């Protein structure tokens, strides 16, 4: 004759003996909390490298644009000094003063535009090199500031060269020097596209230097050659 089976303890006795414990994880498995923390750290390291901040980049871009634009003063002086002079001659026809080119086949007017274009390209190369050496990290605001500064510098150089050059009133100038006397025409930029030489040269060169020698974003580190698992929603 066998002994009677002992009945299981009632629920209230089981709760009094101790609280319920969750089952232990397998030896090689990671807890969901650690996976979530690992994924958050990975996402921050991969997407959180945004440089010094947008406000700082915009402020630096403004400083670059202002500094580059002030270089237009030097460009204007050089253009006025190096540009060829276009000779004009005044005459009196039927009691009225007329002004015409002394050398109708001369290429001085083309040389004026060419001088400004070459100087603009040189200033674009110089400004791009200086900006890249001072701040190797790129960024859209910096590139926009460099191009905008080059355009403003070209406009400043154009107006300064015209102001420094001969008088724009050629009839009054012809009357002043006398009939048949050669004088120089006002400094004029015939091809307005030359104003884009500086910003385009600076933009292209700076982008090329940044692509070749700029800092690289660090590659993400993966464990066992795989991305960390994303926690389920």
Keywords:
mainly alpha; 3 strands; elongated; 233 residues
Major sheet: 3 strands, antiparallel
Radius of gyration: 37 Å
The count of helical stretches stands at 8
Order of helices and strands: HHHHEEHHHEH
Region (Disordered): 1-34
Transmembrane segments: 63-82, 116-134, 141-160, 195-214
Biased composition (Pro residues): 1-10
Biased composition (Low complexity): 21-34
Explain the layout of strands and helices.
Layout lengths: L10 H7 L14 H16 L6 H17 L1 H11 L4 E7 L2 E6 L6 H27 L5 H25 L5 H8 L4 E3 L12 H17 L20
Antiparallel strand pairs: 1-2, 1-3
Helix pairs in contact: 3-6, 4-5, 4-6, 5-6, 5-8, 6-8
Describe this entry's structure for a reader.
With 233 residues, this protein is mainly alpha-helical. The chain contains eight helices and three strands, in the order ααααββαααβα. A three-stranded antiparallel sheet has the order 2-1-3, with helices on one face. A hairpin with a 2-residue loop joins strand 1 (87-93) and strand 2 (96-101). Helix 3 packs parallel to helix 6, helix 4 (72-82) packs antiparallel against helix 5 (108-134) and helix 6 packs antiparallel against helix 8. It is elongated. It starts with 10 loop residues before the first helix and ends in a 20-residue tail after the last helix. The model is unreliable at 39-50 and 222-226 (pLDDT under 50).
